[in-house]
Amino acid sequence: MKMARPLVLALIACLTLFGCSQQPGSGQGSPPNASSSAAPAKPVKHDSYRFNTAQGIDIGIQPLTLPEGSVAELISRDRVLFKRLSRSGMQLQLLPFYKGKDIGDLIATGELEGGFFADMPALTAAATGDVVLLAMLKQGAASIVARRPMLVKELEGKRVGTAIGSAAHFTLLRALGNEGLTEKDVEIVPMEVSEMARALYSGRIDAFCAWEPTPAMAFASYPDFHLVHKGLNYGFLCLRRDFVTRHPAETREIVAAVARACLWMREPGQLEQVARWTIESATKFQGEPFSLKPEQMISITRNDLLQVQHSPRIPETLLREQEVLYQKFLFLKKIGKIPENVSWARVRGSIDIFMLRGVMAESDRYDLRWFDYRGNKGTGGSR
User: Fold this and answer.
1) Distance from CA of residue 190 to its chain's centroid?
2) pTM recorded for the entire structure
3) Positive or negative CA dihedral for 354, 357, 137, 44?
4) Which of 95, 159, 270, 316 is within CB 3.0–4.6 Å of 205 for a Cys-Cys bond?
5) Amino acid 43: pLDDT
6) pLDDT surpassing 90 at residue 357
């Protein structure tokens, strides 16, 4: 059951957000362009969050993860969505988190109705809880980054930072395996993504593996870093099955808002606006400047979302056992994140590939091309 606690006004304001290099060891003070993104992330006190009553829809988001953060930013500003939800007396609240695991934990307890997060926590939620994956928000890359040019096989004996159990951890182990190496052939250094660039620069590690925007921010701050390898990762919209069953119309409105956001970002000049909003919200969320430049954010959003396919639907081919998503499922079972007795069929049954297609087919009914985003002075509601 959802906890019925009053909202705090200050929290509501917060929730409308999210969302030439020196050589290491040179002893010349702080590294050039050493952004606050390299500092360890501040812990979020989730106990301070207040959840709505039964008429509330609480969704966890990650303002510092792209392009999911940009989609969440637009949904937080979507007057069309809020107006349509209000017809049934429902209110949407977006709650910011640093980690997808924290979102997954609160979905499991029922305090959140859903979340925008990456494939590993989404798979874990699908395998261990009664949830539905409804839209694909990212088909991007986890990247291995090093201080100097090298091949994957040259990582043998090196210290590599990564977040254990993450898509990046999977990408690292798969890349090693392709070269005949195992996890035992490198020294895995468990690390928050916010620490990785500075740790690599200072020589604490020899390489790291992380998802966007960490690699892009690292290359911006340390131009001498080098890309070693990339591996696929995904992001999804996930909602509790009991919410989807009780509120099918509201579920479709949320799915429609995701589709509407992707359509609007394809409009000329709108990606620049989204980038500015997302950077502002990410900065306010972490309390420090977000170092990614608008043009870098635009590039990630285009490459990892808008140019992948014409809509944010989950492709049926992704469910095949030959695909990387199934391999990630096996990896999560191997490391104990998913119980051994959970079948892939259960996970497949938690992925709805039809709802978004149905919403897209009824574009006029769901006002998919009626754009009215708070703060956008250019339209105020336009088709």
Assistant:
1) 20
2) 0.85
3) negative
4) 159
5) 53
6) yes
Query: Can you tell me the distance from the alpha carbon of 100 to that of 221, in angstroms, rounded to the nearest whole number?
Result: 25
Question: Rounded CA gap, 91 and 53, in Å?
Answer: 9
CB atoms within 10 A of CB 51: 18
CA distance 187 to 372: 50
Tokens of 271: 């990606």
Q: Are 265 and 141 in contact (CB under 8 A)?
A: no
User: Taking the CA atoms of the chain, what radius of gyration do you get in angstroms?
Assistant: 20
Distance separating alpha carbons of residues 237 and 234, to the nearest angstrom: 11
What is the 3-state composition of the chain as percent helix, strand, coil, each rounded to the nearest 5? Answer: 45, 15, 40
CA distance 99 to 116: 11
Q: How far apart are the first and last CA of the chain?
A: 39
Q: What 8-state DSSP symbol labels residue 119? A: H
Residue 345 DSSP class: H
Q: What is the pLDDT of residues 37-69, one digit of tens each?
A: 333 445 555 667 877 666 789 999 999 999 999
Spatial CA neighbour of 37 closest among 282, 346, 332: 282
Q: Are strands 187-190 and 131-146 parallel, antiparallel or unpaired?
A: unpaired
CA distance 125 to 118: 11
